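Notebook, p. 212. Picked up where the previous page left off. The plan for this session was modest: take the two constructs that came back from the sequencing core last week, fold each one, and keep the raw output in the notebook itself so nobody has to go hunting through shared drives later. Recording the first one now, exactly as returned: residue sequence, then the structure token string.
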Amino acid sequence: MSMRWEGKLFTKNLPKIYAIYTGGFLLFFAAMALLEQFGLSARAIGLFFVGFTIFIYAFIGILSRTAAADAYYLAGRSVPPVFNGMATGADWMSGASFVAMAGGIFMAGYPYLAFVVGWTGGYILVATLMAPYLRKFGCYTVPDFIGTRYGGKATRLAAIVVLIVASFTYVTAQITATGTIAARALLIPYEVGCWLGLAGILVCSMLGGMRAVTWTQVAQYIVLIVAYIVPIVWMSGVQGFGWLPQFQYGPAIERIQELEPILGVGAKPTESVPGLAALTTLHIQPGAGLMAAWQFTTLAFCMMVGTASLPHILMRYFTTPSVRDARSSVAWSLFFIFLLYFSAPTLATLSKLSLFDPNLASSIFGKSIAQVQAIPWVQNWGEIGLVAIRDSNKDGILQVNELFMNPDMIVLATPEFAGLPYVISGLVAAGGLAAALATAYCLMLAWANTLSHDLYYKILDPKAETRKRLMTARILLLIIGAAGALVAAMRLEGILGAVAWAFCFAMSGLFAPLVLGVWWKRANRQGALAGMVIGLAVGWVYLLAVRNGMTPWFGLDHLRFGVVGVVASFISMIVVTLLTPAPDAEIQRMVDEVRIPRGETIIAHGKDAGGVAH
């Protein structure tokens, strides 16, 4: 019999429950630090951190198991705004935010702040254009909203296809992150790490659906934010920048700018290593001009609009008790996300200074290559193919453009090359794993729920019993996860690149029908179908063309193809809508009611999801 992880008593006790959990985790961290002093090995520490946290997540998942459709799909619509904000924060962080974003800033500097600006700004769009209104509509999934709002099986099916493409691309990025973390923490092959991460994802999400995922994600947010901020504060104190590094790291940037010309940062390497990169400048290059500003803006735009289009993010706001709570939940989400995003540039700066500054013991440039190759972190990350050294000029001394690193390893490796105790590395690994797993849960759940509810139940078998629908969802989770692990093991794209693709796919196919579905009651079935099909097709074709050698239009490369897709989607949807009959009066009245961000849900007024617009 499952524990009752819902209801007024449980909700009232949430602060106490998670305070106890946080205290327990901090005690575990202190115990690991003490055991390290007594000689516990690095591998054992990594194993304990990863094993302990996965056990806790699985335990919560098992306690939250349910056979009720409302609890499985929507956590019983009982998640308070603050805790939904924490769950959304964990869901949102992902491997990209925790593992790869600071790494991108570390390797290439200012341009990668476009991810921070775009992802944060996207929640403004979610709060003002989407969340309260989709919550009021009362559907289970994003395709459910589109199928109900516009009517017809074709629109629902088109939304399912877009969701599958975007979610699959995103989930492979999360499995890539778990594979990278597990490979280093447990000293196992990367491919094995991918499958191990998948096992953790499935255990935590199969039995309890959204209810299990929600309460697990709250626990994961606590782990990941502690794991992200502790190394920053520690490095800042050791390097002499104070104990509030987010406000005090300006001198560190100035010091890096002094060292860059001395070290030759940005000089083109004479050799290259597949999948790895040499260091470039932390700040924007002087004279980069209009094109650099344009690329920054378009990348931020894609991340912003993509955020407001991602089904696994939007469905989090279906779980709140009311429309008002959905809006409040977005504000809390922004706060919890801000805590990490405000810290990412600080982490990148302090980490880079650790390698650059000859006054710090962790500095490696100017030392003999043999000496550097004997450093444990260089050996350990080199064994899994994420660090390489090439003595291009054959002088036996390490130059800055002779060190090649994978950006995805920077955050995880920072405690090691900054000289922090290994227990901090274990903590960071646990935090990165929490971030990747939290996002993967919701992505796979969004996909499986859509296939079981929207495809199987709404299209193929409308008479299917709840038990059969939930069993279908769980079987689909297994199939989806296995496919994602196979693709992730191929390392076709870095974490940030794969995530950018997911955002671009989502905005190409879903943004126009979602926004216009709420804010333009004239929008109709034919227009929505055209917008989804043409937007996704144009975006995909443009991506393939650029990847196969076509010169990008106006600098819109493979990370920005969503701009092309979303423009095509809006144009086609508006034109087709105006050329075809308007929706009937009932649908237009329903849209008017949806735009009032208060009151009871539309579906609760006796309109069965999927039946309104048929």
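Okay, moving on. Second construct, recorded in the same format:
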Amino acid sequence: MAVTKFLPVDWSLTDEESKAQGRITPSQERAILLALSQIGYSDGCLIADEPGFGKTTCGAEIIKRARAWRRVLLICLPDTHKQWVERINAQSEGIPDALPPRVMNGTKAGKANYDAFMKHEEGIFIASSHFLVEKDWEQRPEWHHDVVGDKVVRFPVFKRDRKTGELELVARAEGVIGPAEEPVRQMKSTRLDRFARFSRKPLDAVLFDEVQVIASRKAKGRQTIYSIKAHFRVAMSGSFFLNKLENQWSVATWVWPGDDPETGEPWIIPAFQRWKDRYLLAEAVRGRGGKVLTTKYGGAITQVTGERIPGEFVSTLPAYIRREAEPVPEPLVIDVDPTPQQLAQIQDFERDLMIWAMSWTGEEAPLVADIPLVLLTRLRQAAIAELSIGEGEVVSFADDAASAKLAPLRWLLEDRWGGQPAAIYTDSKIGAHFIERRMRRAGVDARAWTGDLTKPQRDEMKHAYMAGEFPYIIATVQSFGTGLDGFQTRANKVAWISRPQGNSALVDQAIRRFWRPGMTQQGGGFEQAVLRM
């Protein structure tokens, strides 16, 4: 189906009226004009809209109207490449010298587009941040050196015994290992600095959708993206600093690396610690006995507890805009008692850090949680269903595993929601596949969406779901949080089997796949329910 070009803004209409007429909304137009107003001034803009306000449309319009831009890089998630190409083509329809969108990826055409990008050809080059990082970094063996006589020899850190298959540290006296025992080398990431050439011939602009990818100042991807020089930058994300206030610095210094022409001072304080001291509150981390923990250099280790003045930093940014959706309605909470089998496993884990689980051979085997993080994971899995040990010693759920959450889930889907299309969220991949199998055994067409799906498989499943071929999609929160549009027009009911801990941004992004502008109003409107154990 062809994508329709949005008509120009009509300032007399509301956003909802504009959408009904297929027009650019007034709030979108304000974001577009704000970005364009920064060309030659701050040369950057941060669009921090929550999902559903049309950042893709804004980005396509910014590129179209900045007619002097002939070499543009658009960084976005692979799942949104097609969406961006369609919107750019639609908005540029009828413009004789419009730039062509050129996707860079691992396909033959994508590789050719990458070669053209590196040769500074014109176009709107579209790539994922992961693709760019892969081009900029390489895994190389790390060698250690020794002196034998008057020669310097190199040897890898580990070798593998051909009989036992175990790794052994290489003794210094052994020198170089022969080919009979192929060594297992210690690897390290080596920066290739592939994009240094853009220092001499900067791009006209870089637009970065879901810019939270480089939120961490220590991320490898941040180094790569920073090395791609451009005259103008646009960052887009409704959660650009994720859960950490200190991440604001990382994104802002990418958007505005230069100086304020009026003051001659940097737009953003370039030293992270000085910026942190200026805008954030922090307290020392204390260990046993209340002693302040320190770094190896003797400085106190601190953690951020808030902002000195809430919202102060973003208020200093030269071009920042944020549109917020209505708050997500509070969920219906259904408390679920574990089955006897689940309760026994949970209590054993809490007491012994170990349970006896049925293995795929039909015999009981020990399943040990030897560190707190693994213990938390196992407890959360056991709250979904009774755990087993599958073939290859992999933790799994048997098809007939006892689960206390399936009955209330069925009540939600069939009785309360009357068989309407719905999404079922969990933070467990094996949990998603388990629920899919159990629902299919009950004659219900439900399909699991996890990180294992390839892009063509995701496209096929989305098309089938949107076309009404099946009513229930079971998604892991981690694979469904960003880069997916349109699902709100199909479903407005969401059931939570489990939610990831410590990442409220991920949970918020996932629920806003369905609670967002344009959502269907069928069956009494939006509702989410949490099955809590």
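Notes on construct two before I forget. The two ends are 44 Å apart (CA to CA).
Flagging for discussion at group meeting.
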